[in-house]
Input
Amino acid sequence: MAVKRALLLAVAAALLLAGCGDDSSGETTTTAADTTSARVYFLRDGKVWPVSREIDAAEDRATALTAELAKGPTEQEKQDLSLTTEIPSDPDATYTTAALAQLVYTLTQFPTMKSVEIAGMRYTRADFEDETPIILVESPLPFEQVSSPLRVTGTANTFEATFQYELLDSEGNVVDNNFVTATSGTGTRGTFDFTTGDFSEVAKLVVFENSAEDGSRVNEVEIPLTVAS
Output
């Protein structure tokens, strides 16, 4: 799949007409009178991965978020998370499949927008399973300030729908761990929503599967966190 970058503006305009600015979605958080927190999706090991951005609450969200996508990951996100992007900087460049995944994931984070039409083709997140990590944590986001206990949500496509998590403190000690079961797995992506045990300090959330072959960790992802003061 490849499309011209100019289509990005057309997509944003279409979303505006479709009502993507509806504040009833519950997927964004108002952090101040003039800003709203939302997600943009870059790439981590070639798979989509969300990070937080503050956008103007008065601006159309689709337009604001596509602009944030075009800026690319921050230096901290590049260094600490190894995030990259395939959103092209050249206005005449084409969109790769990974770039389309970034765009579609970013614009469909709102319940009011389940799909995106581009060049006569309608895309949903399900069209980009190959560009989605086996375990995708959508909350909390990297570097987020969190409180105890921690609620964790996202999607997964793991063997028998199960995986594990650990919470680590600043010295690398495990302060909480458990198994998680998503709504589906083994070829079908499901959702998960769980709450950890209590903790006084946390520096990192780690999610992973245990290999069915040798018990080693696979599909492991680390998400840096801080405890809200």
